[in-house]
Amino acid sequence: MGRFQERFRSFINNRWLVFVAAMWIQSCAGIGYLFGSISPVIKSSLNYNQKQLARLGVAKDLGDSVGFLAGSLSEVLPLWGALLVGALQNFIGYGWVWLIVTGRAPVLPLWAMCILIFVGNNGETYFNTAALVSCVQNFPKSRGPVVGILKGYAGLGGAILTQIYTMIHSPDHASLIFMVAVGPAMVVIALMFIIRPVGGHRQIRPSDGTSFTFIYSVCLVLAAYLMGVMLVEDIVDVSQPVIIIFTVILFVLLIIPIFIPVYLSFHLEPTVPLEEVLLPKAEKSVEDAHEVIFSEIEDEKPNEVDLLPASERQKRMAQLQSKLCQAAAEGAVRVKRRRGPHRGEDFTLTQALIKADFWLIFVSLLLGSGSGLTVIDNLGQMSQSLGYDNTHIFVSLISVWNFLGRVGGGYFSEVIVSDYAYPRPVAMAVAQLVMAVGHVFIGMGWPNAMYIGTLLIGLGYGAHWAIVPATASELFGLKKFGALYNFLTLANPAGSLVFSGLIASSIYDREAEKQHQHPHNLQNSGSIFSGMLGVDEPLKCEGYICFFLTSMIMSVLCVIAFILSMILVRRTKIVYSNLYGKSRASHVG
């Protein structure tokens, strides 16, 4: 009995249990991606036009991205307290929206609806903060894979909740809003005491690589299964018992990762684990004592040094550094001390805000993720304008691609930096080119192009949110990572405000008005009678022209984001060479 209690205590304090629980919570943290599914019922119930609906979308994006309060509370409250606050916000915000849409509560003005959507979606920031903080502390040497997987499950949340909604088979579309209000809150409250730092940096095992491989395999199987199920349900008229079976299998795939902490705690013989530093510190060289800083060497180095291979470049830089130290010691030169940290050290938010690299990341993220979010927010109207009856399929599909983009972005960007010592932002540049092509597919409105467009945009958009956090932590440190990351996430609502709230909605309403002015574009006489009765019926636009210009603009913006990312790559080559070049050289040797 004592042996079992010891093993159970080991299980409760196992860092892999925290990771798995964080994955489950993150699978409920993607409720914002369901806005494309719930927006049509809000629009029809409250008689909104596209511009009013876009404002709700911006409020949703603000709630999803403004995480300063969540970050501040997580430093004061225990993580379970922050999770509880997030669950309450989610329940109150979306629960009130459901009451209004179903007529159980009086209709509120648009600004009040925006507040409710903001409060409901802002609960996600608490889920994200608690999951990332606990797992980054428990897995300090595996930030890329951990962040990619956790953000990936957040992107998959829309598809998971949509499948559960399909199983419920409710004829009332507003019930999806009710599920968004209640489901995540229940899951988070059930798991909130598990999410915490458990000294994971002292639980290193040789089997960790195998465990990550197993998690990656489950991720790929889960994404492939969800995609297959959704395509089958879209093409074939599936009976309700089969849908229930599909959903049960989905739950099994979500639960499978719990096998790792169970195996490590109950079936593997306890061993003395290795230990890694909680927050890696930059190596201090002897030259630091002479105040020779990296920027000084950059000022003195010849331009051709940047073109050399990594090993040769390091050798030349070391020689230059040695010469500067010797000259400084002899008084031949006076090395100036630079105020504040330099790239790769710990920055505060104020210090980062005056750095060009930080703003390159922010603007590139604004253009790339902002254009992707515009598609996500308008998926319902985009698919309806192209003649698709089932808008939920595209919301679910883009959730799957978003998931794979985040997992794949974290994995491949980690390969780029660890195996090649090349700047991580190059992966973001590739993702932005992929998105540019995806916008063209959606804008042209070719047969079945919507499927390809959502694939490319989902992958590219998701990759941003695995690459950017890791890049920020590498260039600006981990000490104030929460504040830096929460500021960068403001690029999402900023992009949504401009691209969706102003550009996409204005173009859509303009094209709808053009079609409404011509009698042959009216679908039936009902719209004429509603006009005679003084009912302001929301205008609907049909055809690829509704979002053609918007998609072309988004494509151009993604190309601009690609250029900015490549500028960042060029500026940070030396930084990544110094961060990862030594480990790569030792690995090759």
Automatic annotation (TrEMBL):
- The UniProt record lists the NFD4 C-terminal domain at 352-514
Q: What InterPro entries does the record tag this protein with?
A: MFS_trans_sf (IPR036259), NFD4_C (IPR056555), Nodulin-like (IPR010658)
* Domain Nodulin-like per the UniProt entry, residue ranges: 15-262
Reading the lineage from the top rank, the first entry is Eukaryota
Task: State the annotated membrane topology for this chain.
Answer: Multi-pass membrane protein
Q: Per the record, what is one GO cellular component?
A: membrane
Q: Name one Pfam family in it.
A: NFD4_C
| SUPFAM superfamilies listed in its UniProt record | MFS general substrate transporter
The subcellular location is: Membrane
Where does the sequence pass through the membrane? 16-36, 79-101, 147-168, 175-194, 214-232, 244-264, 358-380, 392-413, 425-442, 449-467, 487-508, 544-569
Q: Protein name, please?
A: Nodulin-like domain-containing protein
